[in-house]
Write a structure and sequence with these properties.
heterodimer; B: 114 residues; mainly beta; globular
Chain lengths: 113, 114
């Protein structure tokens, strides 16, 4: 099955700086890559996603890039704010596997005011 | 709309007891999923239901059973709970299982087995 690795496991940045979280995947058939934000004790919430026919997608301060050849994708958060502090999960899925999501192990982001 | 609703929110069981976790969605989604979340391990798929009347195993199905009661409801049953099943359980739904669709999660059930 698919194997998704996520780095780093923890990340601290100063408010206003940028944060980058990276994920790699193993299954070349994977074609959908969502990112979820999970605040303490809350549900994971989708913040951005990208499909394999797109190399980059932006939504205000958040962007995701995808390199299909290298099988990696990254989340970029610019101008970080304290409310960005949370655990972020990447995931990969394939239309061949019933939209099963394979999640990375998460990155705990702390934005220091 | 409530989205995905899970009950109960918290539960403590003794080893060997059984219980059913309930999940319902009001988004008219076809596909539903059960995950468990353990510290440092992300979310792992237990079972999923691509459509009403079908269920399939995910990564970690041992010790669990599921029922897709109707299009709205998907339950997860622990027949004989074990301490290794102490976890946070999340239910999710997506519009379809074919294609690439985001999954929407419930608030989770925090389950402790003593």
């Amino acid at each position: 099955g698919e194997n998704v690795e996520q780095h780093p496991s923890t990340l601290s940045v100063q408010e206003g700086d940028s944060a980058v979280i990276k994920c790699t995947y193993s299954d070349s058939a994977s074609n959908y890559f969502p990112w979820y934000k999970q605040e303490l004790g809350k549900r994971p919430q989708l913040i951005i996603d990208i499909r394999s026919n797109v190399g980059e997608k932006k939504d205000q301060r958040i962007a995701v890039t995808l390199n299909k050849t290298a099988k990696h994708f990254s989340l970029h958060i610019t101008e970080t704010q304290p409310e960005d502090s949370a655990v972020y999960f990447c995931a990969a899925s394939s239309t061949n596997t019933g939209n099963q999501f394979y999640f990375g192990t998460g990155t705990s982001l702390t934005v220091i005011p | 709309n409530a989205g995905v609703t899970q009950t109960p929110k918290f539960q403590v069981l003794k080893t060997g007891q059984s219980m059913t976790l309930q999940c319902a969605q009001d988004m008219n989604h076809n596909s539903m999923y059960w995950y468990r979340q353990d510290p440092g391990m992300g979310l792992r798929l237990i079972y999923y239901s691509a459509s009403e009347g079908t269920t399939d195993k995910g990564e970690v199905p041992n010790g669990y059973n599921v029922s897709r009661l109707n299009k709205r409801e998907f339950s997860l049953r622990l027949e004989s709970a074990a301490p290794s099943q102490t976890s946070v359980y999340f239910c999710a739904s997506s519009e379809f299982s074919r294609g690439s669709w985001p999954q929407h999660f419930g608030d989770g059930t925090r389950l402790s087995i003593l």
